[in-house]
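Troubleshooting entry. The earlier prediction with adenosine-5'-diphosphate gave an output that would not parse, so I re-checked the input for stray whitespace and re-submitted. Clean input:
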Amino acid sequence: MTAPLERGADTILALEDIHLSYGELHVLRGVSLTVRRGEVVVLIGPSGGGKSSLLRTVNVLQPITRGRILLEGEEISAGGVDEDTIRQRVGMVFQQYHLFPHLTVLKNLTLAPRRVFREPAAEAEVRARELLARVGLSEKAGHYPDQLSGGQQQRVAIARALMMKPSVMLFDEVTSALDPELVGEVLGVMKDLAKSGMTMLVVTHEMGFARDVGDKVVLMAEGVVVEEGPPSQVLVDPKSERTRQFLARTQHA
Amino acid sequence: MNEAWIGPVVAHLGRGLLVTLWISLLSVVVATVVGIAVGSLATSPKPALRAVVRGYVTLFRGIPSLLILLCVFFALPQIGLATGPLTASVIGLGLWGSANIAEAARGALFSISPHQGEAARALGMSARATLRDVLLPQAARRFLPPYIGQLTVLIHASALTSVVGVSDILGSARQMIERLAYMGPDSHAILIYGMVLAVFFAICYPLTLLADYAERRLRV
Ligand SMILES: Nc1ncnc2c1ncn2[C@@H]1O[C@H](COP(=O)(O)OP(=O)(O)O)[C@@H](O)[C@H]1O
Ligand SMILES: [Mg+2]
């Protein structure tokens, strides 16, 4: 038995009273949330509740209307920040993988570090092969994305994000587009990543993952945090009626 | 049997071939530049600009190339622009070809999902690197097969320019056939047109192969 990794108490990500509107549509209505170093925070909730929007604000793909976002203590929601630098520190994995179809798996991994860090090709390739081994895809380095299954593509996408050595990884329903038999291999990679101490903010409908891997579960609906706490409490003995409704519906789905 | 006609005919066809190549090259350049520019405008956020592009493409794709050639040849002098048959041909073929190339460029640009750009930006890549390493290479791959196909079509269409008096290879062939028919018992039409046919095939077949190759290499 290895000792459980010590999770430091320092805050990697702090969201303070985040508001976001798309025109008339008020999607985030004062969301506050903290993610500590090494912590896995699982975001659950009904579709349309603003979970994807929240992740996009953290990766500054979506500017917020009100509130503050702090990444390792530094405010990233203010004007004048260097968005590219922030995005390097925040890894993001999407539901539909979005690999670059014209590049091999290896090049998918090395492109961004080579362009952004000016990392020499040879060094980037060594790191890429290490990460591919870690996600179980060593033999696929020379393949193109369309030659891989969905589960394999998603594991490549995770490795691609890890190439930037992010401080925190965001996952947006990364198993929702997969055939059921491929979900496990992707969740397995995420579980290993969590065990290695990566800080993660994970939107998912996989309650098993939330229960087994999550340090904290946050239920979001209609743009607000309805309930948050340890999985054993939120998933088993929820305080709010809204959470109970949601859990009842997902269990029957 | 007297074979003395062959030398002058081949020499004349050779001069015609140079004209054909020259017209093809110039109209390909015009069509490519105008086509890519117009096709890129189709991605503009301004609806009015997109409507103009639609109109341009629909108009020129809806008219036979021969008609455009005749219109340019006879209409330009009316508005005070005296052009020779060669210039008129290049303008006519270039405009006609640009519509098809614009359509190919528009299609290629729109076929790239906006998520591709977002995925690159999410990795911290700059807008410029995203365009250069992610968006344009993919758009170019989609663009290339229809583009090469259009080059073949343009080269074929260059044979129409003899109608407005250009001595391209087909025009030269017809002149020789008429002369031979006037002078002797045999116009050698089949043989001479056969030579023209072989020349067009020799130019266009490799392009077809190239288009097929580009098509196969395409990764979606
Ligand atoms: N770019 C956008 N423009 C306008 N409305 C959007 C946009 N993205 C999301 N929305 C709307 O915002 C709401 C929240 O969406 P989203 O953040 O995707 O929720 P979730 O991920 O929880 O399903 C939905 O009503 C959705 O239609
Ligand atoms: Mg979502």
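This one parsed fine. The pocket of adenosine-5'-diphosphate (ligand 1) is lined by residues A 22, 25, 27, 47-53 (CB under 6 Å).
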